[in-house]
Every structure is written in structure tokens, then in C-alpha cells.
Amino acid sequence: MRHPRVLPALLLAAALELHPAPNESIRGFDPASQTAEVKWEQEARAVPDAGRVRNFIEKLSNRAHLAGTPASKQTAEYLLAQLKEYGLDAHIEQFEALLPTPRARSLEMVEPEHFTAKLEEPPVPGDRNSTDPGMVPTYNAYSGDGDVTAPLVYVNYGVPADYEELAKHGIDVKGKIVIARYGGSWRGIKPKVAQEHGAVGCIIYSDPRDDGYFQGDVFPKGPWRPREGVQRGSVMDMVLYPGDPLSPGWASEPGSRRLALAEAKTLMKIPVLPISYGDAQPLLAHLDGPVAPESWRGALPITYHLGPGGAKAHLKVVMDNGTHPLYDVIARIRGSENPDEWILLGNHHDAWVHGASDPLSGAAPVMEAARTLADMTRKGWKPKRTVMIAFWDGEEFGLVGSTEWMEKHADELNRKLVTYINSDSNGKGRLAVGGSHSLEDFVQQIARDINDPVSGRSLLTEVLEHPRGPARAGATRPAEQNAPGEFRIAPLGSGSDYTPFLQHLGIATLDMRFSDEGGGGVYHSNYDDFYWYSHFSDTTFLYGRTLAQVMATAVMRLSDAPLLPFEFTRLAATVNRYIDEIQKLPAQQKPDLTAVREAVEHLAQTAKTFDADYAAAAAKFGSAGAAKLDPINRILFESERDLTLDPGLPGRPWFRHRIYAPGMYTGYAVKTLPGIREAVEAGNTEQAKEQAGQVIEVLKKLDARLAEAGAMLKQI
User: Fold this and answer.
1) Phi and psi for 255 in degrees, rounded to 5?
2) d(CA 472, CA 520)
3) 135 near 291, Cβ under 8 Å?
4) pLDDT for the residue 166
5) How far apart are CA 215 and CA 224, in angstroms?
6) Integer distance in angstroms from the first to the last C-alpha of the chain?
7) Cα separation of 420 and 398, whole Å?
8) Distance CA 29, CA 468 (A)
9) 655-667 burial by CB neighbour count: b if 16+ within 10 A, else e?
10) Is residue 20 reached through a cis peptide bond, with omega within 30 degrees of 0 on the bond before it?
11) Ranges assigned E (strand) in 41-193
């Protein structure tokens, strides 16, 4: 083991796991039901095992298991067998979707000299997985086909602001091939903006300033991306809609109707190819034109020029746009009192190559949580609400398996799904949670009641004493920002399987993981394998164990609480902060948001009154009976739906949530109050006014429903 303190840490954590303290309450429980809940939780937290987390990751990362391949099906079948072995009712649901793979891909510099890009990741001594003969080619799914020869232009991160900077230098990319570095936005934005500006091809590389030797030692000496490492990934235009591009709005099952390729709005029209910084350096080194602005300069040992001129490239991409099967694995524990109220926990199982970090480091704790819950049922625990566990397929292509499942079951989910809890990749460090702010207080209580496996202090203490700042430009996912001494969860944009549940259906959602600052490393590369993970991430697998404890506790509290633990004063305060942010935007004209602010402040007062009524009635929850509690619970778990509206956001009606959405040009990163914010950023004052009216509408709807629930609480 790498850390000699592991055993003392385990003993310390076990000794301090007597939470909550006698004077601390758990929201949603009366004293009697809380006593029973604490007993079950303590037993449950003793079940997850770091060794099992380790074995799960090692076993399933032994070979590539890209969605749509036989190996992905075998992974799903293994998960199904494990869940059944634990005694859970489980099955596989099969879908079919467009899952492209490359037929041909090549890149060469033809002027001023000849250079052929390697487009592959070589084996690393000591890392047996890096020699896997089934390694997935380095490519971007949903690239357009193309065989183009054109001058190169360096476009920095390839976001709209970068093209504005190029225009200042008199540089037009029309008819050119652009080369952009990863970071600054989601990868799919880069070819999208490039083709909007008339480029005929797009190359994306990882610059060592963002993800390589500038950050630290590279793999295998350190965790950062080596010279020939490549980040694969989808470039589907997911900000329009995720899921199968050929079945927008309906589930893509065997034999179902599909659009023609030309009709699909989320496919790129130009060829796109990811490359390493080893392959990028000769291309960039031969560019002429103005020297790049200082903030555009990476860490390669060259002078960064913008082009065009100097370097001309030949780029060829031909895709096999075939339809392939997907296998979602679903398990359930039927609720004893409210079986038609569901709590869903999920993570994806497909990977770009081996996927030790993404997704298996998150899937392993989900499996341990499933084993824990199954073990509790054998000991007599009976969840009041139905618990479901899902392992999604096709996430890496564009949240395909989860979206297709949502579309198939949308009506039933809208009636029954209380909360969706997501995980993805997991690391070490501090608890990082994003999601619906009506669950922020709920998450804080869980963080209060579970300890960090190394320090032995509560997860909450660790977060409060180590607040996060903004994510750096090269990070793969945004980090939440906590003020010192204040617990906040982050708003969610996109990039994982929570998207269809939160952004489309309006289901209260959480995304949970442990993470350090930063990102990158071997993300989506052949080197995301067990060797890398066991040397540089959660090397003791204790944070995997702790994440299983966190998820099992969250599921148990949501399934057992007599009254659901939603809380709305924090939601109102959070929306107020979002208004402040919009008012600080550097726009020439901004809409008058006074009426939005008034709606938020009225909601805040209603939420405060509701909270007082909630506290006053808490002692009677256990004896109130279903007739009184069920209507209140219905309002509470539909509260997130109240924040959605049809039609959805301008230009992308699939996204219905009026508080959170991925940005049109940020991809993964969230835009809060997205309709208003993006209209202000675009200088569209009339649209901003219209969107402000829609935000007021959903806030008033939630306000009225909350007042109704408060009146019911008074009757208890």
C-alpha cells in the first residue's frame, strides 16, 4: 500500500461514525423514526468495503468496453449477475442508437514540409493495459465525414470570444482547418463554432499547459497527460438535445423509427479529429501570421502564431455511422408503503477505452451501495419508497442510454420519480456535490454525519475548511464555489446522466463524487486504466468506500423519511445570487429584473414560513398518517417540475428547466437562469425580458404550491 496511515485512518473513521449526534436532527424524520433510521444507517455504513471497490475497478477495466461492442454487453451482463447475486430484482433494457466509429482517419502537414500525425497512443512500460489489442482508435464520435486540404489557423480554445479576437487581427477561418486546444469549454463546442464560421475541418489537441508537463509529471511518472496521450470524446451538439441523434423525443428501440442522418441536428458537418500535443507541435510550430495573444500561448517550446500561412494540412475522416445496441441495467427494491414513489441511483458502465476512472471509479461505489442496501433488506430494513439502481450504457457518446430510458418511461417517471442521484468518476479529496438547491440542506446533513476516511473529521468540516475556487481552464468539469464557512452545492449543467432527469423532466437531482482541484490527466485516453488509477487517484480506494456510504445514506434517508427533506430558503437565496451575477454582466443593455427579484423574495418568505411549519410539525410526522403526509410529499417531489416550462429554452426546447441548463456555448458548464443570461450575453434585450417573464411564472408556481403545502402542514 502507498500510504502507511491507512489502517489508523480506518480505525479512526469507524470510531467516529456515530452520527448524527443526539442533539442533531435529520430533516424529514420525527424523533421515533429518526432513532430507527440512525440504527439502520450505522449498520449500512459498516458494509461498503474498499477492497471490493478495488476489485470491481480492476476487473472491469481489464479491457476496453466501448458502448455498442460485445465487451460492453458483457460488462452489462456481469453487472446484472452481481445485482442478482445480492438478491435484487434486476433486468437489462436494450436500446439501439447511432454509435459511430471511424473507418478512416488521417492527418498530415503538406506545407511547408511533410509530417504525418501518429494518431495513436503507444504502450507504456509497466502498464499492461496500455498494450490492449482492443484499444479504441483516437477519434471524436459524431464527427462529419471529410477529406480536406487547407491552411491551418490556431483558434485557442475555439469558443466564440476567440473568433472575436481573431477578427481583430483580420483573420477569417472560412475555408480553413482550425486547430483548437482542449479546455475553456466542452469539446463539442469547438467544431460547432468552427463550422459556424465557415471552417472546413477541426483538430483538437491537449496543450501541456492545461493537461501535461506544465501541470506536473506526466504518466507514467506522474498523473498528467503524456506527450502522445489523446482525449477521445463525443462532439455531438448536446446543448440541443442529448441521446440518440436519430430519435429526438422518443426511445430508440429495436425496430423503432429513426431520422435520416441528414435530418439529425446534433451531428457535426465538418471532419473533427483529436490529437496529442506530440502530433500538434509540428503543426503549430510551422504556423506564420501574428504571434498569439499571451493568454493563448500554451506550454509547447514554440512561439505560438495564429496563421494562416506557413502550415497547410490534409485532414481526412470517414465515419461508420452504424446503429448498435445499448444495455441499461436496472435493479429495484420495492417500497413497503409508497411503492409508486421512486428514488433512483445511477452511474454509467461504458467507457472510451478501459475506464478505470471514468466511469468505473464511480460505478464501483454505486455497486457497493447496491450491495449495502440489499444486505440491509436481508436484515429487516424495508424502505418506504421504492429504491432503484441503474447502470447506464452509451453515456460517453452523449448520455444515450439514460436519455433513451427516460424517453421510454417519461410518463411514469414524471408521476413517480422523487429524486435521481448520479455519480460518474470518483477520486479523492473533498466531497463535491452538484444539483437541485432544494436538496442543499439535505446534502449538508449527510456531509455532517459521515467522516472523511483519512482525517477522521466530518466531510462537512473538510468542505467548510477547504473552500473551492473556480475551476481552471483545462478542467474537464466545473467545480462548485464555496464561500469560507458556507456549504453550497454547485448548479448542474450537463456532461453526465443526470441531464435528462433534471433538465428535461424536472426531477430533483444530485451528482456526487470526491475530487481534488483540477482535471485532465488521462481523461478519455488509453491510459485511464487500473495502473494509472491505483497509482495516482484514490490509491487506497477508501474514498470509493466513503462515496458508497454517502450514496447509501442518501438513498435510505430519501426512501425512509416520513416527509421528504426538501428545503427552499436556500433555493431562493441561490436564485437571488444568480440575479446578482446577471446584473454584473458587461452588457450594454440589461432588462429590468425587479419583478424577478420580487418573485424570488416572495418565494423566500413563503419558504421561510414553510420551514417554520415544517419544524413545528416534525414531531408528529410519525403519527400523522398517509392521508395527511402523502399530499404534502406529492407537492415536495414535484417542486422541481414546477421550475420547468414548455416550450423550453430558445432554440433548444428539449431543455425545459428555467434555473439550470448547460450553456449554448459552454457545453458541460452550467448557465444559471439560462434564458435570461444568454439573452443578455447576446445583447437580445427583448428575449431577455420574455425569459424573465417565464422565470417569474415558474417561481410563482412554486411559491403557490409551497404555500399550499405549508397550509397542509399546519393541519398536522
Assistant:
1) 90, -5
2) 11
3) no
4) 98
5) 7
6) 55
7) 18
8) 31
9) bbbbbbbbbbbbb
10) yes
11) 89-98, 101-111, 115-116, 140-141, 146-154, 177-181
Q: How far is Cα 152 from Cα 474, in angstroms, rounded to an integer?
A: 23
Q: Radius of gyration of the chain from Cα atoms?
A: 25
Element (H, E) at 210: helix 208-211
Q: Give helix 31-45 / helix 542-560 axis angle, nearest 10°.
A: 150
Report pLDDT for 667. 85
Handedness of CA 334, 340, 344, 348 (dihedral sign): positive
Which neighbouring-strand residues pair with 150? 313
Q: Is the pLDDT of residue 606 over 60?
A: yes
Tell me the pLDDT of the chain averaged across its residues: 93
Distance between CA atoms of 34 and 40, rounded to whole angstroms? 10
CB-based contact 259:126 (threshold 8 Å): no
Q: Cell 504518466 identifies what position?
A: 219
Helices (H), 519-593: 530-536, 542-560, 569-583
Answer yes or no: are the C-beta atoms of 351 and 396 closer than 8 Å: yes
Fold of 569-715: Transcription Elongation Factor S-II; Chain A (1.20.930)
This prediction has a pTM of: 0.94
Q: For 579, phi and psi rounded to 5 degrees?
A: -65, -45
| Residue range 71-105, pLDDT digits in tens | 999 999 999 999 999 999 999 999 999 999 999 99
Average pLDDT over residues 537-544: 97
Other CB atoms within 10 Å distance of the CB of residue 341: 22
What does the pLDDT look like over 429-480, one tens digit per residue?
999 999 999 999 999 999 999 999 999 999 999 999 886 644 433 333 334 4
Q: Do 6-98+324-459+490-560 and 101-319 agree at the fold level?
A: no
Q: What are phi and psi of 219, to 5 degrees?
A: -60, 135
The residue among 637, 649, 630 whose CA lies nearest residue 688 is: 649
Instruction: For residue 215, give the 3-state DSSP assignment.
Output: coil
Phi, psi torsion values for 649, nearest 5 degrees = -65, 155
Backbone angles phi, psi at 260, to 5 degrees: -75, 155
Domain 6-98+324-459+490-560, CATH class in plain words: alpha beta
- Spatial contact of 78 and 149, defined as CB atoms under 8 Å apart: no
- Residue 713 host element (H or E): helix 685-715
Higher pLDDT, 565 or 7: 565
Sheet holding 385-392, edge to edge: 89-98, 323-333, 385-392, 338-348, 417-422, 508-515, 430-435
Domains in the chain: boundaries: 6-98+324-459+490-560, 101-319, 569-715
Task: Count Cβ atoms within 10 A of the Cβ of residue 22 and give its class: 0-12 exposed, 13-18 middle, 19 or more buried.
Answer: exposed
Under 8 Å CB-to-CB from 543, ≥6 apart: which residues?
Answer: 426, 427, 428, 429, 453, 514
Give the separation between CA 689 and CA 41, rounded to whole angstroms.
48
- The CATH architecture to which 101-319 belongs is 3-Layer(bba) Sandwich (3.50)
Contact between 281 and 81 (Cβ < 8 Å):
no
Quickly list H helices, 237-329: 277-285
Contacting residues for 690 by C-beta, under 8 A, at least 6 apart: 675, 679
